[in-house]
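Hi R.,

As promised on Friday, here is the backbone we talked about, encoded as structure tokens. Could you run it through your design pipeline when you get a chance and send me back a sequence?
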């Protein structure tokens, strides 16, 4: 809807904890699906729809049904080591003995995990609005407007 009006659209939602924070091993952050839609001067707009974890549970289930292990780095165990044993991982994700790695990887910055804010449903505060506007200007996207811009 926003793209059709020449505006940038951003949506997100929270999810139950299933991601360990950077250098952590406990499920503390949700996968928090995130979507951006940005008009462009090309035939199609830029659209991004993603989670804030390296992978999703469904992909681990797919590997498990195929009898394969997942690549190292997707899941971390309580001992801080990467896990690849899909069948046990699926059980341990339920009990908190395993966690998905954040987008950016284990031991890296989880760039998008900040979306797991408690005020997710609240309007964006003035400080964050200004940061977004500044970033938009630095990226040369001043022709596009967010809904909170007048």
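Update: got your reply. Pasting your designed sequence below so it's all in one thread:
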């Amino acid at each position: 809807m926003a793209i059709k009006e020449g505006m940038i659209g951003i949506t997100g939602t929270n999810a139950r904890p299933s991601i360990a924070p950077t250098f952590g091993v406990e499920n503390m952050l949700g996968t928090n699906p995130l979507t951006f839609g940005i008009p462009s001067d090309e035939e199609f707009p830029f659209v991004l729809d993603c989670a804030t974890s390296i992978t999703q549970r469904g992909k681990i289930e797919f590997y498990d049904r195929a009898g394969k292990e997942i690549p190292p780095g997707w899941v971390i165990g309580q001992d801080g080591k990467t896990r690849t044993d899909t069948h046990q991982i699926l059980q341990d994700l339920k009990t908190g003995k395993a966690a998905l790695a954040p987008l950016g990887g284990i031991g890296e910055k989880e760039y998008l995990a900040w979306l797991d804010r408690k005020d997710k449903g609240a309007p964006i505060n003035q400080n964050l609005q200004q940061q977004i506007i500044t970033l938009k200007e630095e990226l040369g996207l001043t022709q596009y407007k967010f809904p909170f811009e007048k």
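One thing I noticed while checking it: The CA atoms of residues 25 and 78 lie 5 Å apart.

Thanks again,
M.
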